[in-house]
Design brief:
Layout lengths: L6 E2 L5 E2 L3 E3 L15 H13 L3 E3 L3 E2 L11 E2 L6 H12 L4 E7 L14 E2 L18 E2 L2 H20 L4 E6 L4 H6 L14 H4 L1 H14 L4 E7 L10 H11 L6 E5 L18 H4 L3 H7 L7 E4 L5 H8 L5 E4 L1 H5 L3 H5 L17 H12 L1
Parallel strand pairs: 3-4, 3-14, 4-7, 5-6, 5-7, 7-10, 8-9, 10-11, 11-12, 12-13, 13-14
Antiparallel strand pairs: 1-2
Length: about 375
Amino acid sequence: MNPFSELVLPNGSVIRNRLAKAAMEENMADENQAPSDHLIRLYQSWAEGGVGLIITGNVMIDRRAMTGPGGVVLETEEFTERFEQWSKAARSQGAQIWMQINHPGRQMPAALGQETIAPSAVAMDLGNLSSQFSKPRQMNEEDIADVKRRFVRTAQLAKQAGFNGVQIHAAHGYLISQFLSPLTNKRSDRWGGSIENRARFLLDIVKDVQKAVGKDFAVSVKINSADFQRGGFSSDDAKKVVAMLNPLKLDLIELSGGSYEAPAMHGQARDGRTLAREAYFLEFAKDIATVAEMPVMVTGGIRRYQVAEQVLSSGIDMAGMGTALALNPKLPGEWRSDRSATALLRAVPWKNKMMASAAHMAMVK
């Protein structure tokens, strides 16, 4: 399929092409945890680069729950003007801009000094680096209700600030992903146990957000195709969750993979010299897409036109790129006249996966 063909979403809006700037954690907020001038200028560059969809990096729903310093937070109307400037820059060349909204759960650095909450009191297992994260407190019903309200509020504020949609982050080991995984969700109540119970938190959030923002505002979800941890959230689990999401008529589902403990989303073990190794979640996604009734997007390692074309010809609706667009924001536009254009970041050969992942993110930034 031609990457420059339009995609009509279930809500009726049109994305001008099948190429997306996927979420990256830019950590470029200002002193108020609002979008900085640097961040807005960066998104202007991506807008000018020619993608059809721009998904923001993590926007946190609670300033008490951050993935690190420099993160953007949206929980009140106080800095609406800054968010309006952000969305305006991203939309300036015709792309849609969706805000990725998130809560880290237990994946919050202990150095931030905030209480950590999670579905269950399961500590991070990062070997010698485990002490960098506090053991979380198990969430009670009040915590769960509060987090659900915060997802809804942030989505409403995003719409108010001129964004075209939101992406609910349920991947990469963050809070919703923690509910989905049997390794991090040990609950015996209605939020744990079966995959139907473990998915309840995500389904509730999607329903509540959709009800609050209306049909003209896109609502999407990002989930793992797998956690890549033994006994964790599997590709079979992912297919079941997608089937449960089908009746909700999402505008898009993005498939990725990994977590802090198993950072497959950075693909640092791949050398990127073959097409088969470049789109490293594609085989999982093709299987999961067989049950999806909503448009499907795959992110992970795409940096060449031929690979984007391969992804889109395999039944996937959108190709998401992160690292490639950090290196060359103009790549989609260049592909219109030069199909050989690419953007390559050297591999990180370190054996410690956590350190290799941190190094990869540092180079991208």
